[in-house]
Amino acid sequence: MKTLFAPYRLEKDEETGMPVLSALAKDGAVLAVVSEPTLEGSEAELVSLVMAVLDSQAQDGKDPLPDLLEAPPKKGGYVAFLPSQLLTVHLKLARAQAKLRQADMADRLGITQQAYAKLERPGANLTLHTLIQLERVLGRELVAWAR
Amino acid sequence: MGSAFMLGIELVKLATRHGWSLKPHPGGDHPFLLERVGAPRPIPIRHKLKSRNEVIVILKQLEIPRADWPGSVT
Known about the structure:
heterodimer; A: 434 Repressor (Amino-terminal Domain); four-stranded antiparallel β-sheet; 5 helices; B: Metal Transport, Frataxin, Chain A; two-stranded antiparallel sheet; 5 strands; about 25% helix
């Protein structure tokens, strides 16, 4: 699993002078738009909005990661998505493609549905033990292990 | 945080009149997610939209005709 990138188009709001950032997919379509008083604040918000889109698509069983770039663009601004952030997207996608509900996963892991839902929440910090259990239940790799 | 140029819910209401529907999503700080049959991806809308240009880019993304844009952005 690698860090992936989304370039953004930067414009300025004429009235407020605030930056307006539009994250772009590989096909040039707008993924998300934000405007905050600072560029740093706008970038942070953009990451969280794009994550919501990726999460939602993964939940529907559609792989959203081909929308992102594997290397930062040579020109212009971009936001980065770390492997730790993308792990929950991989997990949701793997579960959706296996046609399992959160409750099914929870049953197989011997935990409550609420506890399982926390594992899929963006920002979840999964332990190695949990990751191995999840891979076993899903029958597929979620991260590329060192060989 | 901070003041809003427009509330996201106003844009959501407008979008639903143009074939978009609100995707069920956990509450809290999560954005609204709009989906429409044939649209390749959901469109996220924040609870508070901070500038006119932010709203304009979203209106274009939603393919809402200019004639239907809210008065505050035209």
